[in-house]
Amino acid sequence: MRKPLFNGKTRWQVVVAGLLLGSFLLTACGENSPSILNTFGPVAASESFLFYVILIIATIIFVLVEGALIFSIIRYRERPGMPNPRQIHGNLRIEVLWTVIPSIILFIVLFFTIQGLVNVATQPTSSNTLEVRAVGHQWWWEFYYPKYNITTADELHAPVNTIVQVDLYSNNVIHSFWVPALTGKTDVIPGHNNMRWFKADATGTFLGECAEYCGAQHAHMAFHAVIQSSDDFNTWVSTQQQAAVTPSFALAAQGKQIFMGQCTGCHGIVGDNLKGYDDPQVKCNDPAIACLVGPNLTHFGARGLIAGGILTNNRDQCSPGADLLRRCHLAQWLKDPQGIKPGNDMVVNLTDDQIQALVAYLESLN
Amino acid sequence: MATPVIGNATTTVVRQKRLSESYVGEWLMTTDHKLIGIMYIVTGFFFFLVGGMEALLIRTQLAAPDAHVLSPQTYNAIFTMHGTTMIFLFVIPVLTGFGNYIVPLMIGARDMAFPRLNAFGYWVLLFGGIFIQSSFLFGAPPDGGWFLYAPLNLTNAGCTVHATACTNGMNADFWALGVLMLGVSSIAGSVNFVVTILKLRAPGMSINRMPLFTWMVLVTSFLLLFALPSLTAAAGLLLLDRHAGTHFYQYAFGGDPLLWQHLFWSFGHPEVYILILPVFGMISEILPVFSHKPIFGYTFIAWSGVAIGFLSFTVWAHHMFAVGLPPIAQAFFATSTTLIAIPTAVKIFNWIATIFGGKISFKVPMLFALGFVAMFLIGGLNGAALAVVPFDYQVTDTYFVVAHLHYVLFGGTVFGVFAGTYYWFPKMTGKFLGERLGQVQFWLMLIGVNLTFFPMHILGLLGMPRRYYTYAGNLGWNELNLLASIGALTIGLAIMVFLYNVIVSLKNGQVAPDDPWDAFTLEWDTSSPPKKYNFLHIPVVRSRRPFYDKKYPEIADWKTVIH
């Protein structure tokens, strides 16, 4: 990468200082990143393994070729009184040699590539398989569990050490499903019901991102892959299967009324305006049936993210009070969704009092 | 002025100057390949500045997390226009310009085969470029990415069963119509190059003796002729979908969004080589001259260019590894992508062998050419990494890809274009570009390009997707993004130095002789700048280095080598 170093010491110092600075930066950043090298499952692991294979090969080639380049630059620089060089036009033997050697190296890499390709493509057959339907909306993710008939948004729950088969569905534009720690990308294409499988080795919460440009708020289409122990997962499923709880206090009851009056055009809560969960693929594929524009909010209070991950759901800051709008992200969202996420579909006009009530109700749904 | 006597009256007939004889008129009405070439190059550099400012806006927005320099809609329009401008309005015009200026001179011709078609190609390009850029004035700049994927590029009504946020305004129409116009220009230019190169070479210049730049322009022209129909079809179908109610890209009515991707990339990947092959040619001209040696492995460099040309039509779906193609298809495209790396590697080795054992003089063109080799190697290696399909699943559509394509197109193409600019500027203008300022520009650019694009590899590995108008501050991406933005400013500074250099050199630059670099090819056997007719006598060619032969008859190539 570095080039003519023909002016002696100072340039070497620059190079060394630059490399040192670079390595400091490398160690400094990336601790909380959704890094593809910090993997928690076999799919991502075999993908990152191939990174190391190619990194080693590429580094060797890089050093050799740049080395040859820099050596030639320094060794054959023009010096006073230098005679004209011999006029060499080529050498067939060398040409064949350096056609064959990179070919061999490249085909070794290709072998690894195809092996990894098959690994990642082949979903292990297992009775212990969870099927999830991931639906790409503009700009948030919906997850539907056909086996349990439940729907959630912004959070993909799955048990640890289980094969998760994600059916990818979009009725709008192309999105791409990606959880760097667990699996690489698969595009979510209207009319192509792609599938992606993964398995998580450890419990934890992993960031998922949309990776195909899908319009104004492509940057805010994140979700959390929440990997739980199978007990926790089963508990979660049984909670989700219940209808929304009846408000236990007056403010929340008032919030429920506001929801029923103003929000049901786009959102649904099982027990309020919905009788049960729907399979979004069935509903949203039919032009004659309205499919919900916004997320199903039945157990909103238990979720970690709001509106495609643009805000976290900081529930503990959302108890009613005069400074609610300063503390509580949900309240801020309800106040000005277009200011926070310009271009999204949510249009509301709520007074601060209504927001207090609505926040109390939604956060009570867990 | 004659004073004819008619009858008994004396009249003075004054011949009025035609418009084409005035300074401005000459530029407007010229069919001279050299003037058209310069107009292409100047136009290209103008759009380079436009695209560069867009790049700086992008880097300003991304310098810090949660920034509000640009609104999401504006950001999306800016990155779309950055790509569109750089690819269609900077690289292609500039390379066409160099081809226009240099190729006829190199092959000992007096002009292109079809001078009027040549002028037509330029003017269509200029108006096409202005048309696309004018979308900003209508408040409807294209904002679907330079690849403009379906169905996001359709109108809301045509987009989905439940109309959502697609492209309702004229944004996509500007793109589709503009690209069609630029396609017309490229077809006109390519036909012209093919005929010129095949029919107008000087006596004795067999195909096997053509300068490598000419070779690569020939290959590129064929690529354009075969690749553009696909883009034309894609854009045409898009316009039908948007305005005539067809459903080529609409799945709900039996169309397919992936049709767009296949059409677009079967243009788009040859396009990548269209953007780099002529630069390979320039480098293959410049490295030998400043090493005082002939190019090493002429035949291999020429035919590896041809091989790349053919293979470039078989690799398009490596842009689409994540769309869910069957594994066997993915394996096919991984293999073809692996194959195309081989001729590319051969070229790099031959370039290094050319300078190996030479006598290297570090004039600015040579600095940029060497910088090209060093940077392009990185772009080749991280490109080969992207062909490792499972790894590609992780890094496609992340900043790793941004790093790769910019090492190829900036570290590669732009360095090459500057090498060519510094190399041929004396021929075109009769003045040298300032050496000192050139060195400053080179070092700023070399530092800038690595500072900007190297951190992007790591950002990609750390999971930062492309085309995000902002990012949260807690994901570990802040420092690297700031670094990249500082690098972008450095590049901006380098370009300012270049502009200053051009202005100063045109005004008070050192006067260039006809053959300032002791070069090998025929364009240097003309005056600087060349006369309208280029050559008084069409030269006769007996080897690959005709001008070298003429200057050093006692050690001429044709006496020692047979080719």
Overview of the molecule:
The complex is a heterodimer of chains A (about 375) and B (about 575). Helix content of chain A is about 40%, strand content about 15%. By secondary structure, chain A is an alpha+beta fold. Chain A has a domain at about 250-365: Immunoglobulin-like. In chain A, strands 3-2-1-5-8 form a five-stranded mixed β-sheet. In chain A, strands 4-10-9-6-7 form a five-stranded mixed β-sheet. In chain A, strand 11 and strand 12 (about 310) form a beta hairpin. In chain A, helix 5 packs across helix 10 (about 350-365) and helix 8 (about 330-335) packs across helix 10. Chain A starts with 8 loop residues before the first helix and ends with a helix. Chain B is mainly α. Helix content of chain B is about 65%, strand content about 0%. Chain B has a two-stranded antiparallel ribbon. In chain B, a hairpin with a 2-residue loop joins strand 1 (about 5) and strand 2. In chain B, helix 3 packs across helix 13 (about 400-430), helix 10 (about 325-355) runs antiparallel to helix 11 (about 365-385) and helix 14 packs antiparallel against helix 15. The longest helix of chain B is centred in the first third of the chain and has 35 residues, at about 70-105. Chain B is globular and about 80 Å long. At the A-B interface, helix 1, helix 2, helix 3, strand 7 and strand 9 of A face helix 3, helix 8, helix 9, helix 10 and helix 11 of B.
Ordered list of secondary-structure elements with their pairings:
The complex is a heterodimer of chains A (366) and B (563).
Chain A lengths: L8 H20 L13 H34 L16 H30 L7 E9 L2 E6 L4 E4 L1 E5 L3 E7 L5 E5 L3 E6 L6 E5 L4 E7 L12 E6 L1 H12 L8 H13 L17 H5 L20 E2 L4 E2 L11 H4 L1 H7 L1 H4 L11 H13 L2
Parallel strand pairs in A: 1-5, 4-10
Antiparallel strand pairs in A: 1-2, 2-3, 5-8, 6-7, 6-9, 9-10, 11-12
Helix pairs in contact in A: 2-3, 5-10, 8-10
Chain B lengths: L4 E2 L2 E2 L12 H7 L3 H30 L9 H35 L8 H20 L21 H4 L11 H29 L12 H32 L13 H35 L6 H14 L15 H29 L8 H23 L2 H7 L3 H31 L5 H27 L16 H31 L37 H6 L5 H4 L3
Antiparallel strand pairs in B: 1-2
